[in-house]
Amino acid sequence: MSYFRAENLSLHFGGLKAVDAVSFAVEKGEILSIIGPNGAGKSSIFNLISRIYRPTSGRIFFEDQDITEQPPYDIAKLGIARTFQNIELFENATVLSNLLVGRHRHSSTQLWQELLFLPSVRANEKLHRRRVEQVIEFLDLEPYRDKLISGLPYGVRKVIELARALCSEPKLILLDEPSSGLNVEETDDMSFWIRDMKSELGVTVLMVEHDMSLVNRVSDRVIALNYGRVLAMGSPSEVQQHPDVVAAYLGA
Amino acid sequence: MRFLFKTDYEDDIRLFPHSGYVVSYGLLFAVLLIAPYVLSSYLMSQLVFVCIYATVGVALLILTGFTGQASLGHAAFLAIGAYTAAYLQKYNVPFPVYFLAAGVLTGCIGALVGFPALRLQGIYLVIATISFAFIVEEILARWESVTNGNEGLRVKALSLLGVTVSRDSPTFYFLCLAVLVLTIVGTLNLLRSPTGRAFVAIRDSETAARSMGVNVALYKVKSFAISAAITGFAGVLFAHKLSFISPEMFTLQLSIEFIIVILIGGTFSLHGAVLGAIFIVMIDPFLTYLKDDMPGVIAGIAAAFGAGTVTAGNIQSKVAAFASLNGLKGAIYGVIIMLFVLFEPLGLYGRWLKIKLFFQLFPLYKRATFKRQKIYVKSERNR
Ligand SMILES: Nc1ncnc2c1ncn2[C@@H]1O[C@H](COP(=O)(O)OP(=O)(O)O)[C@@H](O)[C@H]1O
Ligand SMILES: [Mg+2]
Fold first, then answer.
1. Which three-class secondary structure state does DSSP give residue A208?
2. ipTM of the complex
3. Interchain contact, B195 vs A114, CB within 8 Å
4. Which string of b and e fits B117-130 if b means at least 16 CB within 10 Å?
5. pLDDT tens, A95-151?
6. What is the C-alpha separation between B18 and B11, in angstroms, rounded?
7. 8 Å CB contact between A75 and B211
8. CA A228–ligand 1 middle distance (angstroms)
9. DSSP code of A11?
């Protein structure tokens, strides 16, 4: 049994088959990249996993549990965190409170305890704060802790979104184009962090990415997608040499 | 300028970040404690209304400012609290019991209003809450066995531990102040806990909140319930302060006044709710002044500039006619809302922060410091 598995997953928007009978599996501890031209259905797969969209058909399994019918907020509780292609941060809050929202799945305090800010709530807050600080250290975000998101540059926001996902201590993380909009230097940092996430934090990574050099550097396996269908699956070099993939990228 | 060095996670949790806060809030508190022994009874009465309006302001802030759910129905929540108190009082239920009952009942109704609101956003939510308020108003007017219809209900002075507390007594003022302070402290506690952060997360991006494990529907309903419950508590005090309640006291105009409270104060800050409450409560005496004294003053000025007595009298009656125009209050509200939305979106408290920073940084302050930076436009895809 695989760690994470999508079986015959389809998503139709009217006549458009954004995702068309896609099946793949992710093994525990690996970095799997999904590549493909714009509109291939990569983000749609992520949106299906995090239940923003309901699949037209097909099933999703995580740790041997069928999660196809789980409500969206339960997906995070199961240990699947994600980032968004078009950054979805809490704009009018500080970096710190953004990251603390990442801790939401670990909070267990009741409303009445919070209203009184009982010692148990305080103790929990300190624990969350300590965990958040570890992530801040991991991703070099120290200068930004108390800054509002709305004033931060794009590259930093991208990292903060990654940080927020990591704060939830996920087992599986979904990264939607982690390097888009980043410069060369920032992309380098990102590739180190992704590898460290796997080796140091033991997180399994499913990633959508356009930058082939980043894909080659970090991926264990690659899936190529076009028009919602899987074209090829295998090692990075295998997939890139696959004739269908070459054709898709040349626009044939 | 003061630099804060944080050495402990506790530093981010504390309510008062540094000793300056303790001193200034201590002073404010001392002033509020001696107020009833210094101020005139008229001003004390206004101060009680400030406390009640500020409590509702904070309640609305939780829902609108922090959770991002608009409401034009808070007058109805206030009414439910007020009528619950007046009704239970008739059956000799003691004050602490009907005070709690009013809050709990209003909170439950708030949660019920929250459910249909789950599918609505922006202007549609506003319309839904207005409709709710109209329904409540209608029920208050028709359900005569309980509410006594348009005749209204008399509210007896409250009695606490066997002692009668008149609505003009310092004790009543302290009670209102205590409710306000407890509301503010509770709200601050909420904001530094998971629930408060979930509210803010929902306000800024429901999609992201959901993907981080926030049960958006549950927290929206919670926000409605908390906001309504606090408003219900305020309603009990409101009923006692007025000593008589009838449906026409809880109209759309009152809901709009509550919106103005948080709009003027600044939709993001508790300080703002208090400033806004002071503003809205003091606008009435200001209008009265406008009606009573302004015509005379202006006529006097005109006379001093050489206008004849006839002309001066003419001016006086014209100004008087203007000042007692029926829709004047509404028009002033309208203009205020427009001006604040256009020029001071952060409200009075935001303005105060800017002034404070100006003096802290003097002479380095730059106009651009508060220019809104728009580096990246969020996609509207999943809205
Ligand atoms: N909410 C939607 N409604 C209609 N069509 C959509 C929607 N979301 C995505 N699509 C379409 O589905 C296809 C796949 O989109 P997407 O998964 O975002 O592609 P990408 O591989 O670039 O991430 C595109 O043709 C897109 O236009
Ligand atoms: Mg995409």
1. strand
2. 0.92
3. yes
4. beeeeeeebbebbb
5. 999 999 999 999 988 899 988 999 999 999 999 999 999 999 999 999 998 888 988
6. 9
7. yes
8. 9
9. E
